[in-house]
Amino acid sequence: MTDHTWGVLSNQAITAAGVVYFLALLCALVEWSAWQSRARAAVAEKELVGAGAPADETDAPAPSKTASAADAVREQRAALFGRLSLLLTAIAVVCHLIALVGRGMAADPNRVPWGNMYEFTISGSFVVAAAYVVLHRRLKLSWMAPWVLGFTIVVLTLAVVGLYEPVAPLTEALNSYWLVIHVIAAIIATGGFTLGGIASAAYLLKSRFPDAALLARVPDLDNLDRVSYRIHAFAFPVWTFGVLISGPIWAHEAWGSYWNWDPKEVWAFITWVVYAGYLHARATAGWKGKKAAIVALIGLATLWFNFIGINYFSSTSQHSYAAPAAPAVVELTEGASR
Q1: Residues 55-92: pLDDT tens digits?
Q2: Exposed/middle/buried for 329, CB within 10 Å: 0-12, 13-18, 19+?
Q3: Helix axes 247-255, 263-280, angle to 10 degrees
Protein backbone atom coordinates (compact mmCIF):
# COMPACT_ATOMS: atom_id res chain seq x y z
CA MET A 1 0.00 0.00 0.00
CA THR A 2 1.18 3.51 -0.80
CA ASP A 3 1.37 6.37 1.70
CA HIS A 4 -1.66 7.97 0.05
CA THR A 5 -3.65 4.74 0.38
CA TRP A 6 -2.77 4.50 4.06
CA GLY A 7 -3.88 8.09 4.55
CA VAL A 8 -7.21 7.46 2.84
CA LEU A 9 -7.68 4.30 4.93
CA SER A 10 -7.00 6.28 8.11
CA ASN A 11 -9.58 8.94 7.23
CA GLN A 12 -12.17 6.32 6.26
CA ALA A 13 -11.52 4.30 9.42
CA ILE A 14 -11.93 7.34 11.70
CA THR A 15 -15.22 8.14 9.94
CA ALA A 16 -16.38 4.54 10.35
CA ALA A 17 -15.36 4.62 14.02
CA GLY A 18 -17.43 7.76 14.57
CA VAL A 19 -20.49 6.22 12.91
CA VAL A 20 -20.22 2.98 14.92
CA TYR A 21 -19.62 4.90 18.16
CA PHE A 22 -22.85 6.78 17.43
CA LEU A 23 -24.78 3.54 16.85
CA ALA A 24 -23.35 2.18 20.10
CA LEU A 25 -24.50 5.35 21.85
CA LEU A 26 -28.04 4.87 20.52
CA CYS A 27 -28.09 1.30 21.86
CA ALA A 28 -26.77 2.50 25.23
CA LEU A 29 -29.49 5.13 25.41
CA VAL A 30 -32.15 2.50 24.67
CA GLU A 31 -30.69 0.42 27.50
CA TRP A 32 -30.84 3.44 29.83
CA SER A 33 -34.41 4.09 28.75
CA ALA A 34 -35.39 0.53 29.68
CA TRP A 35 -33.82 0.91 33.11
CA GLN A 36 -35.48 4.29 33.54
CA SER A 37 -38.90 2.83 32.68
CA ARG A 38 -38.35 0.04 35.16
CA ALA A 39 -37.37 2.53 37.88
CA ARG A 40 -40.44 4.65 37.24
CA ALA A 41 -42.66 1.57 37.33
CA ALA A 42 -41.15 0.57 40.67
CA VAL A 43 -41.74 4.05 42.11
CA ALA A 44 -45.33 4.05 40.84
CA GLU A 45 -45.95 0.65 42.42
CA LYS A 46 -44.57 1.84 45.77
CA GLU A 47 -46.80 4.90 45.66
CA LEU A 48 -49.80 2.72 44.83
CA VAL A 49 -49.05 0.41 47.75
CA GLY A 50 -48.52 3.41 50.01
CA ALA A 51 -51.84 4.90 48.99
CA GLY A 52 -53.59 1.65 49.92
CA ALA A 53 -51.98 1.80 53.38
CA PRO A 54 -52.43 -1.87 54.28
CA ALA A 55 -52.74 -2.45 57.99
CA ASP A 56 -50.33 -5.35 57.96
CA GLU A 57 -47.58 -6.51 55.60
CA THR A 58 -49.58 -9.67 54.91
CA ASP A 59 -52.38 -7.47 53.55
CA ALA A 60 -50.11 -5.77 50.99
CA PRO A 61 -51.06 -6.63 47.42
CA ALA A 62 -48.66 -8.92 45.59
CA PRO A 63 -47.16 -7.67 42.34
CA SER A 64 -49.40 -8.55 39.43
CA LYS A 65 -48.32 -11.02 36.80
CA THR A 66 -48.63 -8.26 34.21
CA ALA A 67 -46.20 -6.03 36.12
CA SER A 68 -43.75 -8.90 36.57
CA ALA A 69 -43.94 -9.75 32.88
CA ALA A 70 -43.38 -6.09 31.97
CA ASP A 71 -40.31 -5.97 34.25
CA ALA A 72 -38.95 -9.11 32.64
CA VAL A 73 -39.40 -7.61 29.16
CA ARG A 74 -37.61 -4.43 30.24
CA GLU A 75 -34.73 -6.45 31.69
CA GLN A 76 -34.39 -8.48 28.52
CA ARG A 77 -34.48 -5.36 26.36
CA ALA A 78 -31.89 -3.62 28.53
CA ALA A 79 -29.59 -6.65 28.49
CA LEU A 80 -29.91 -7.06 24.72
CA PHE A 81 -29.14 -3.44 23.90
CA GLY A 82 -26.40 -3.35 26.53
CA ARG A 83 -24.61 -6.27 24.88
CA LEU A 84 -25.16 -4.75 21.44
CA SER A 85 -23.75 -1.41 22.62
CA LEU A 86 -20.63 -3.10 23.99
CA LEU A 87 -20.15 -5.09 20.77
CA LEU A 88 -20.48 -1.96 18.63
CA THR A 89 -18.10 -0.09 20.92
CA ALA A 90 -15.51 -2.84 20.52
CA ILE A 91 -15.91 -2.70 16.71
CA ALA A 92 -15.54 1.08 16.80
CA VAL A 93 -12.37 0.75 18.90
CA VAL A 94 -10.92 -1.59 16.26
CA CYS A 95 -11.77 0.93 13.51
CA HIS A 96 -10.23 3.65 15.68
CA LEU A 97 -7.03 1.61 16.03
CA ILE A 98 -6.89 1.04 12.25
CA ALA A 99 -7.17 4.81 11.78
CA LEU A 100 -4.20 5.38 14.09
CA VAL A 101 -2.08 2.70 12.43
CA GLY A 102 -2.97 4.03 8.98
CA ARG A 103 -2.05 7.55 10.06
CA GLY A 104 1.43 6.44 11.10
CA MET A 105 1.95 4.30 8.01
CA ALA A 106 0.89 7.18 5.74
CA ALA A 107 3.94 9.22 6.78
CA ASP A 108 7.28 8.92 5.03
CA PRO A 109 9.18 7.62 6.88
CA ASN A 110 6.65 5.64 8.92
CA ARG A 111 6.21 6.96 12.43
CA VAL A 112 4.05 6.90 15.52
CA PRO A 113 0.73 8.75 15.00
CA TRP A 114 1.58 11.60 17.37
CA GLY A 115 2.86 14.37 15.15
CA ASN A 116 0.18 17.05 15.72
CA MET A 117 -2.83 17.86 17.87
CA TYR A 118 -5.22 16.00 15.56
CA GLU A 119 -3.26 12.79 16.06
CA PHE A 120 -2.84 13.35 19.81
CA THR A 121 -6.58 13.96 20.19
CA ILE A 122 -7.75 10.89 18.28
CA SER A 123 -5.17 8.86 20.24
CA GLY A 124 -6.47 10.17 23.57
CA SER A 125 -10.09 9.43 22.69
CA PHE A 126 -9.05 5.96 21.52
CA VAL A 127 -7.51 5.18 24.90
CA VAL A 128 -10.65 6.34 26.73
CA ALA A 129 -12.89 4.05 24.65
CA ALA A 130 -10.42 1.13 24.72
CA ALA A 131 -10.00 1.41 28.50
CA TYR A 132 -13.77 1.30 28.90
CA VAL A 133 -13.98 -1.91 26.83
CA VAL A 134 -11.09 -3.54 28.73
CA LEU A 135 -12.37 -2.58 32.19
CA HIS A 136 -16.06 -3.10 31.37
CA ARG A 137 -16.37 -6.50 32.99
CA ARG A 138 -13.73 -6.13 35.69
CA LEU A 139 -15.15 -2.91 37.19
CA LYS A 140 -18.77 -3.40 35.99
CA LEU A 141 -18.78 -0.23 33.89
CA SER A 142 -21.79 -0.97 31.69
CA TRP A 143 -23.60 2.02 33.25
CA MET A 144 -20.84 4.29 31.91
CA ALA A 145 -21.53 3.57 28.22
CA PRO A 146 -23.48 6.76 27.32
CA TRP A 147 -20.94 8.93 29.14
CA VAL A 148 -17.89 7.37 27.48
CA LEU A 149 -19.45 7.18 24.03
CA GLY A 150 -20.77 10.74 24.19
CA PHE A 151 -17.36 12.02 25.27
CA THR A 152 -15.57 10.05 22.55
CA ILE A 153 -17.91 11.25 19.81
CA VAL A 154 -17.55 14.90 20.86
CA VAL A 155 -13.74 14.70 21.00
CA LEU A 156 -13.53 12.92 17.63
CA THR A 157 -15.81 15.52 16.06
CA LEU A 158 -13.69 18.37 17.40
CA ALA A 159 -10.54 16.65 16.15
CA VAL A 160 -11.85 16.06 12.64
CA VAL A 161 -13.54 19.45 12.27
CA GLY A 162 -11.10 21.76 14.03
CA LEU A 163 -7.73 20.04 14.43
CA TYR A 164 -7.18 18.03 11.26
CA GLU A 165 -3.69 18.30 9.72
CA PRO A 166 -2.32 16.54 6.62
CA VAL A 167 0.11 13.69 7.27
CA ALA A 168 3.71 14.94 7.51
CA PRO A 169 7.06 13.75 8.93
CA LEU A 170 7.80 14.41 12.59
CA THR A 171 9.58 17.59 13.56
CA GLU A 172 13.12 17.15 14.86
CA ALA A 173 12.08 17.57 18.51
CA LEU A 174 9.40 14.88 18.15
CA ASN A 175 11.66 12.42 16.32
CA SER A 176 12.80 10.52 19.41
CA TYR A 177 12.01 7.18 21.01
CA TRP A 178 11.42 9.12 24.23
CA LEU A 179 8.39 10.59 22.48
CA VAL A 180 6.90 7.08 22.30
CA ILE A 181 7.59 6.39 25.98
CA HIS A 182 6.42 9.80 27.18
CA VAL A 183 3.25 9.97 25.08
CA ILE A 184 2.17 6.37 25.71
CA ALA A 185 2.33 7.01 29.46
CA ALA A 186 0.56 10.38 29.16
CA ILE A 187 -2.23 9.06 26.95
CA ILE A 188 -2.85 5.96 29.10
CA ALA A 189 -3.04 8.17 32.19
CA THR A 190 -5.34 10.60 30.37
CA GLY A 191 -7.71 7.77 29.50
CA GLY A 192 -7.69 6.56 33.10
CA PHE A 193 -8.24 10.01 34.59
CA THR A 194 -11.11 10.60 32.17
CA LEU A 195 -12.89 7.39 33.18
CA GLY A 196 -12.29 8.22 36.85
CA GLY A 197 -13.63 11.73 36.26
CA ILE A 198 -16.78 10.32 34.67
CA ALA A 199 -17.31 8.18 37.77
CA SER A 200 -16.78 11.26 39.97
CA ALA A 201 -19.27 13.31 37.94
CA ALA A 202 -21.80 10.48 38.21
CA TYR A 203 -21.22 10.45 41.99
CA LEU A 204 -22.06 14.13 42.30
CA LEU A 205 -25.20 13.75 40.20
CA LYS A 206 -26.32 10.65 42.10
CA SER A 207 -25.76 12.33 45.46
CA ARG A 208 -27.67 15.42 44.33
CA PHE A 209 -30.58 13.51 42.75
CA PRO A 210 -30.67 10.13 44.55
CA ASP A 211 -34.16 9.18 43.41
CA ALA A 212 -33.99 10.42 39.82
CA ALA A 213 -35.25 7.78 37.42
CA LEU A 214 -32.79 9.05 34.83
CA LEU A 215 -29.93 7.89 37.07
CA ALA A 216 -31.43 4.48 37.84
CA ARG A 217 -28.68 2.79 35.80
CA VAL A 218 -25.93 4.48 37.84
CA PRO A 219 -24.58 2.33 40.71
CA ASP A 220 -24.86 3.30 44.37
CA LEU A 221 -22.60 6.00 45.81
CA ASP A 222 -20.19 3.64 47.55
CA ASN A 223 -19.61 1.73 44.34
CA LEU A 224 -19.06 4.93 42.36
CA ASP A 225 -16.60 6.24 44.93
CA ARG A 226 -14.68 2.96 44.94
CA VAL A 227 -14.49 2.74 41.13
CA SER A 228 -13.32 6.35 40.85
CA TYR A 229 -10.59 5.81 43.43
CA ARG A 230 -9.32 2.57 41.88
CA ILE A 231 -9.03 4.13 38.42
CA HIS A 232 -7.31 7.26 39.73
CA ALA A 233 -4.93 5.17 41.81
CA PHE A 234 -3.89 3.33 38.63
CA ALA A 235 -3.58 6.42 36.42
CA PHE A 236 -1.58 8.57 38.85
CA PRO A 237 1.72 6.61 38.86
CA VAL A 238 1.50 6.31 35.06
CA TRP A 239 1.06 10.10 34.81
CA THR A 240 3.95 10.57 37.25
CA PHE A 241 6.22 8.49 35.04
CA GLY A 242 5.07 10.25 31.89
CA VAL A 243 5.28 13.82 33.24
CA LEU A 244 8.07 13.81 35.82
CA ILE A 245 10.42 11.14 34.46
CA SER A 246 10.16 10.40 30.75
CA GLY A 247 8.96 13.93 29.88
CA PRO A 248 12.01 15.74 31.35
CA ILE A 249 14.36 13.19 29.78
CA TRP A 250 12.78 13.85 26.39
CA ALA A 251 12.96 17.62 27.00
CA HIS A 252 16.67 17.37 27.80
CA GLU A 253 17.29 15.38 24.64
CA ALA A 254 15.24 17.76 22.47
CA TRP A 255 16.05 21.16 24.00
CA GLY A 256 19.05 20.59 26.27
CA SER A 257 17.19 21.22 29.54
CA TYR A 258 15.14 18.95 31.79
CA TRP A 259 12.68 21.72 32.70
CA ASN A 260 11.95 24.86 30.68
CA TRP A 261 8.85 26.25 32.43
CA ASP A 262 6.97 25.61 29.22
CA PRO A 263 3.18 26.22 29.63
CA LYS A 264 2.41 22.55 28.97
CA GLU A 265 5.05 21.46 31.46
CA VAL A 266 3.64 23.81 34.10
CA TRP A 267 0.05 22.67 33.56
CA ALA A 268 1.09 19.03 33.52
CA PHE A 269 2.70 19.61 36.91
CA ILE A 270 -0.42 21.41 38.17
CA THR A 271 -2.46 18.37 37.12
CA TRP A 272 0.00 16.13 38.97
CA VAL A 273 -0.31 18.26 42.12
CA VAL A 274 -4.13 18.16 42.04
CA TYR A 275 -4.26 14.38 41.66
CA ALA A 276 -1.52 13.92 44.25
CA GLY A 277 -3.64 15.99 46.64
CA TYR A 278 -6.68 13.88 45.76
CA LEU A 279 -4.96 10.59 46.59
CA HIS A 280 -3.16 11.99 49.64
CA ALA A 281 -6.38 13.41 51.08
CA ARG A 282 -8.16 10.11 50.63
CA ALA A 283 -5.31 8.18 52.26
CA THR A 284 -4.65 10.49 55.22
CA ALA A 285 -7.61 12.78 55.84
CA GLY A 286 -10.28 10.30 54.90
CA TRP A 287 -11.68 12.45 52.11
CA LYS A 288 -14.25 10.40 50.31
CA GLY A 289 -17.45 11.01 48.47
CA LYS A 290 -18.37 14.54 47.44
CA LYS A 291 -15.13 16.31 48.38
CA ALA A 292 -13.00 13.74 46.61
CA ALA A 293 -15.22 13.85 43.52
CA ILE A 294 -14.90 17.64 43.28
CA VAL A 295 -11.10 17.49 43.51
CA ALA A 296 -11.02 14.74 40.87
CA LEU A 297 -13.07 16.89 38.48
CA ILE A 298 -10.76 19.86 39.07
CA GLY A 299 -7.87 17.58 38.12
CA LEU A 300 -9.72 16.46 34.99
CA ALA A 301 -10.34 20.09 33.98
CA THR A 302 -6.64 20.95 34.32
CA LEU A 303 -5.73 17.79 32.40
CA TRP A 304 -7.84 18.50 29.32
CA PHE A 305 -7.05 22.22 29.38
CA ASN A 306 -3.40 21.25 29.22
CA PHE A 307 -4.08 18.67 26.51
CA ILE A 308 -5.96 20.97 24.13
CA GLY A 309 -6.50 24.43 25.62
CA ILE A 310 -2.86 25.45 25.94
CA ASN A 311 -2.47 25.26 22.17
CA TYR A 312 -5.12 27.98 21.78
CA PHE A 313 -4.18 30.24 24.69
CA SER A 314 -0.39 30.11 24.50
CA SER A 315 1.86 30.98 21.58
CA THR A 316 5.14 30.39 23.44
CA SER A 317 4.86 26.66 24.13
CA GLN A 318 7.72 24.51 22.88
CA HIS A 319 5.18 21.69 22.68
CA SER A 320 3.97 22.99 19.32
CA TYR A 321 2.27 20.26 17.32
CA ALA A 322 1.70 22.26 14.15
CA ALA A 323 2.55 20.89 10.73
CA PRO A 324 6.31 20.90 10.14
CA ALA A 325 6.14 23.32 7.26
CA ALA A 326 7.40 26.20 9.40
CA PRO A 327 11.06 25.05 9.60
CA ALA A 328 11.20 24.82 5.80
CA VAL A 329 9.92 28.39 5.53
CA VAL A 330 12.58 29.55 7.98
CA GLU A 331 15.33 27.85 5.99
CA LEU A 332 14.01 29.42 2.79
CA THR A 333 14.00 32.85 4.36
CA GLU A 334 17.51 32.41 5.72
CA GLY A 335 18.71 31.32 2.28
CA ALA A 336 17.16 34.40 0.67
CA SER A 337 18.79 36.69 3.22
CA ARG A 338 22.19 35.33 2.34
Answers
A1: 444 444 555 555 566 667 767 877 889 999 999 999 99
A2: exposed
A3: 170
